[in-house]
UniProtKB/TrEMBL annotation:
Its cofactor is [4Fe-4S] cluster. Residues 9-229 form the Radical SAM core domain. It is an enzyme of class 4 (lyase). The keyword Nucleotide-binding applies. It catalyses: GTP + AH2 + S-adenosyl-L-methionine = (8S)-3',8-cyclo-7,8-dihydroguanosine 5'-triphosphate + 5'-deoxyadenosine + L-methionine + A + H(+). Keywords: 4Fe-4S, GTP-binding, Iron, Iron-sulfur, Lyase, Metal-binding, Molybdenum cofactor biosynthesis, Nucleotide-binding, S-adenosyl-L-methionine. This is GTP 3',8-cyclase. Pfam families: Mob_synth_C (PF06463), Radical_SAM (PF04055). Its EC number is 4.1.99.22. The keyword 4Fe-4S applies. One of its GO terms (biological process) is Mo-molybdopterin cofactor biosynthetic process. It comes from the Bacteria. GO terms for molecular function: 4 iron, 4 sulfur cluster binding; cyclic pyranopterin monophosphate synthase activity; GTP 3',8'-cyclase activity; GTP binding; metal ion binding.
Length: 330
């Protein structure tokens, strides 16, 4: 199948599934959840790997050809590696990628390479060990950064995701750009989003415009880097540098017009927009005995009603942003 059948009312074809395998994480990043954690889902409420595999087959049968494994932290769930082997058997699935915090990737590096899963997005919000600890509430910087360097040497395609916020890590923006001088990786600066698991969120002004202006003050000459038609980031290179950097307007939501993503949480909640309400719970539908055809019709119907953008999706519900990103699925 060359084109996705998952088409919304604005003609956007969805071919990219973000599949969360767990809501649990071994970090407590301030922008994701409170220090004490959240009420994690009971094991019985999580999709089993068999259920996730069946749903992945249905999605791919409708034209999804890329699946990103997210969490929580995907590698904290037992059974993730056998599941990745199973995903590799799905016809029409061209690309499997993973978003991780990098603490557990070293132990799986050889298996991931064997599977051809060499595109990893790693959350890294600071290049300073003290700030890293303050942000993640964990003392793991050396292990994470060491794993990143090892994987780069092993030929992995690494993107570093850094959430930018005042009084947290603004000092790291320029060092991250400088990291691309000699390392063939991509840094992505993200606007902070309101999904922090608490009732308190106020955007601090570090939007995509301000981030770029800050970088240009120190690197006035930048080359644009061509991005894919559904890219969420606007990408650049410092002339002569090996790597690149980009900026993702995740709160400003300027990329909604070309969004090709659909999300499935670890508990089965289907979302056609991160900022919207769940469209259905596929776990419950599955466990009630739904057929393949019924699942396909549900997905087609949910996508057909997708909102124009994140702002419209937000207005459609009495939405509270105090849900943790770990629950939503990264």
């Amino acid at each position: 199948m060359n084109q996705s059948l998952l088409v919304d009312q604005y003609g956007r074809r969805l071919n990219y599934l973000r599949l969360s395998v767990t809501d649990r994480c071994n970090f407590r990043c301030y922008y994701c959840m409170p220090e004490e954690g959240i009420n994690f889902a009971k094991r019985a409420d999580l999709l089993s790997f068999d259920e996730m595999f069946r749903l992945a087959q249905v999605f791919c049968g409708l034209g999804v050809d890329k699946i990103r494994i997210t969490g929580g932290e995907p590698f904290v769930r037992d059974g993730i590696i056998p599941f990745l082997y199973r995903l590799r058997t799905i016809e029409n699935l061209k690309d499997i990628t993973v978003t991780t915090n990098g603490t557990l990737t070293a132990r799986h590096q050889s298996v991931l390479k064997e599977l051809g899963i060499t595109k990893l997005n790693i959350s890294l919000d600071s290049l300073d060990a003290t700030r890293f600890h303050q942000i993640t509430r964990r003392d793991s910087f050396n292990g994470v950064f060491g794993a990143i360097m090892t994987m780069l040497e092993d030929g992995f395609d690494i993107k570093l995701n850094s959430v930018v916020a005042e009084r947290k890590n603004v000092e790291d923006i320029l060092p991250f750009v400088e990291l691309t001088r000699n390392h063939n990786l991509a840094v992505r600066f993200l606007e902070e989003m309101p999904f922090n698991g608490s009732e308190h969120f106020a955007h601090d002004g570090w939007d995509h415009v301000k981030i770029l202006e800050h970088i240009k003050m120190h690197y006035p000459e930048l080359d644009g880097v061509e991005s894919g038609p559904s890219s969420t980031s606007v990408n650049y290179k410092v002339p002569g540098y090996v790597g690149s950097f980009g900026i993702i307007p995740s709160f400003s939501r300027t990329f909604c017009g070309t969004c090709n993503r659909i999300r499935l949480s670890a508990t089965g909640e289907l979302r056609t927009c991160l900022y919207g309400a769940p469209n259905a719970n596929l776990r419950d539908v599955l466990r009630n005995g739904a057929s393949k055809e019924e699942l396909e019709n549900l997905l087609l119907g949910a996508v057909a009603k997708r909102a124009k953008d994140g702002f419209a999706a937000e207005k459609m519900i009495p939405h509270s942003f105090n849900t943790s990103m770990s629950v939503l699925g990264g």
